[in-house]
Amino acid sequence: MASRLPTILRLPALRIMSARAVTSGNPGDGVGKGGGAGGAVREAGGAFGKMEVAKEEQYFRQLQKEQMEKLKDLLEDEVSHHERQIRQHQDAIEHHKKKISRLNKKTDGSDSD
């Protein structure tokens, strides 16, 4: 389960970083102006190219937000699971302590050396 966590968080960040690292101008400026090779709309540049970049950024921010919520839920589930296990172990410890005290009482009362 822990091995899945880095993969969940890593994918959108890599996409965003790699897209930004490739461009040398403003995203959505068009081919030859630093914003090309991002698809037909982005290659054309202008207002539509910039709007497409804004939509992509919004998509990745939303995706990252959803992944963070899933991670938070997963961690909360793990915490509650471990708290349940702690309670079960504490109950088992008390049970065993009672058995030990009963055994001690039996051996103390019948031993007449």
Automatic annotation (TrEMBL):
This is ATP synthase F1 subunit epsilon. Residues 79-113 are annotated as: Disordered. GO terms for cellular component: mitochondrion. Gene3D superfamilies: Single helix bin. It comes from the Eukaryota. The keyword Calcium does not apply. Residues 95-104 have a biased composition (Basic residues). Its main location: mitochondrion. Belongs to the ATPase inhibitor family. Pfam families: IATP. Residues 79-94 have a biased composition (Basic and acidic residues). Keywords: Coiled coil, Mitochondrion, Transit peptide. It is found in: Mitochondrion. InterPro entries: ATPase_inhibitor_mt. GO terms for molecular function: ATPase inhibitor activity. The keyword Transferase does not apply.
